[in-house]
């Protein structure tokens, strides 16, 4: 899996790592049971603090997307459609989506463009899942 982070971004690095991992799961690039790089390995390869990577992995663990074992490390716990979304997730997600859509609207993005871009993104994830091989992938890291 290729993870790209931008140290100049206003988005914290831990959040970028978390977000890219979620996107890779949604796209089928990372599949259940697949091993992630260790916290120390990822921190070393990015040249960042171990606590930054640990914070990203903790967020993914709390969301139930990865599980960690002291012997086997961190692995992907589930993929798209493996489990129905919990009502608490759906409520939180709807609130975050509402804010994101409000940001687009106040910035002048039209309703039609919002709908078109949303559909395009959902279709992109679906197409990538269909095309993704279901075998372990090599880790590739990039700092923008």
Automatic annotation (TrEMBL):
<keyword id="KW-0804">Transcription</keyword>
<keyword id="KW-0805">Transcription regulation</keyword>
<protein>
    <submittedName>
        <fullName>GntR family transcriptional regulator</fullName>
    </submittedName>
</protein>
<dbReference type="Pfam" id="PF00392">
    <property type="entry name" value="GntR"/>
</dbReference>
<dbReference type="InterPro" id="IPR000524">
    <property type="entry name" value="Tscrpt_reg_HTH_GntR"/>
</dbReference>
<feature type="domain" description="HTH gntR-type">
    <location>
        <begin position="11"/>
        <end position="79"/>
    </location>
</feature>
<keyword id="KW-0238">DNA-binding</keyword>
<dbReference type="InterPro" id="IPR036388">
    <property type="entry name" value="WH-like_DNA-bd_sf"/>
</dbReference>
<dbReference type="InterPro" id="IPR036390">
    <property type="entry name" value="WH_DNA-bd_sf"/>
</dbReference>
